[in-house]
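Exercise 7. Given the encoded structure of a 149-residue chain, write a plausible sequence.
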């Protein structure tokens, strides 16, 4: 199990993007599973029930628009937040993402830390040096040590 106990399904066909986004998410304590196309993404979402899905839109077999609609119409997966992660960067694309059921939207190219921030918005923070729940793992330099009364 990951440090956060939270799993992110990354549905992305571009290997470089998968490496970048999965690496930083793992660094921040999330467990990451990957799918290379919409069909695989739907299957993994139903089988593994991730806590959040990062969904590229331009993916093979079943595109991200349709994959999102399938997942949002299925009672077993409709509760899973889906963030569109896409090069479709027009305002109309953002609107379409919301119409098909996406809960968030990030336009690529996207700074990896922006992806983490959006995931944290839905799942909560867990940064290196931070325990689950956000408590510091150790006192900060210069901070007084807490002594029980």
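Solution.
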């Amino acid at each position: 199990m990951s440090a956060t106990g939270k799993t992110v399904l990354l549905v992305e066909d571009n290997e470089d993007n998968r490496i970048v986004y999965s690496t930083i998410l793992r660094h921040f304590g999330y467990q990451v599973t990957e799918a290379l196309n919409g069909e695989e993404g739907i299957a993994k979402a139903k089988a593994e029930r991730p806590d959040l899905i990062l969904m590229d839109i331009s993916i093979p077999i079943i595109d991200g628009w349709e994959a999102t609609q399938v997942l949002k119409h299925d009672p077993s997966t409709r509760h899973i937040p889906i963030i569109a992660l896409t090069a479709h960067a027009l305002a109309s694309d953002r609107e379409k993402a919301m119409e098909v059921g996406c809960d968030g939207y990030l336009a690529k190219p996207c700074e990896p830390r922006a992806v983490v921030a959006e995931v944290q918005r839905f799942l909560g923070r867990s940064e290196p040096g931070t325990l689950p729940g956000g408590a510091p793992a150790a006192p900060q330099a210069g901070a007084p040590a807490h002594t029980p009364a």
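Remark. The radius of gyration is 17 Å. Students should compare their own answers with the one above.
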